[in-house]
Amino acid sequence: STSVDSSDPVWVPSDAPTDGCIYTISGRVTDPASGSGLEGVSIIVTTGRESITDVSGSYTISGLTAATYTLTPSKPGYTFGPADSSFTGITGDKPDVNFTGTLLTYTVSGVVTEGGSPLAGVLVNFSDGTSMTTGADGAYSKTVDWGSDLTVTPSKDGYSFSPVDASWTDI
Fold first, then answer.
1. What is the pLDDT averaged over residues 123-148?
2. pTM of this prediction?
3. Structure confidence at residue 19 (pLDDT)
4. Could you tell me which of 69, 50, 63 has the C-alpha nearest to residue 12?
5. What is the pLDDT of residues 50-59, one digit of tens each?
C-alpha cells in the first residue's frame, strides 16, 4: 500500500477527464462513542490510491482531477459508517469527508454443568479481571473486543472443573 500526502508528485492518467484543476479530498475517521480519531485506517480510492489516517484520524488525498471517485475506509476489526463515499466529476476540494469506525465485539458464552445439568453458583473469572456467578441455567457470557485474548476459569467450593479453564486467542 502507498500513503499519499500533499508532498507526493501528482500523476494524472492520460484518459482522466480534467478541467485543468487538481483537487483534494480530506476528512477524519472517528470512534462514534468517544469522538476520538482512529489511527491507521486505510482510505482506499477506486483509482488505487490510498491514504492512512494519522493519530488524530485525519487523512488527505491530493492530486485528484475532475473525475469520479469512491473512497472506502478499511481497518481489520472495524465496521465503518458510511461504508464508502462517492463523488462524480468533482469540481473543487472536498473537505470533511468523514467516516466513523466501530470496533467489532464478540460474545464468549457457555454453560457450566455437573453430570449434564446446569450448575448454579459457579464463580466464573475472566482474565480481564471481571467475573460473574452462574444462575440456575449455569450460563456465563462475556462481550469482548475484536482481537482480544480471554481465559475463563470457573470455581466453586467443593467442586473441581475439567477443563480447569478455557482460553481464546485473538478473538
1. 97
2. 0.76
3. 54
4. 63
5. 999 999 999 9
> Which grid coordinates belong to 67?
473525475
Question: What distance in Å separates the CA atoms of residue 61 and residue 14, rounded to the nearest whole number?
Answer: 19
Radius of gyration, CA atoms only, the chain: 24
The residues facing 110 across adjacent strands are 140
Q: What is the mean pLDDT of residues 136-155?
A: 97
Q: How far is CA 152 from CA 18, 65, 166, in A?
A: 60, 55, 5
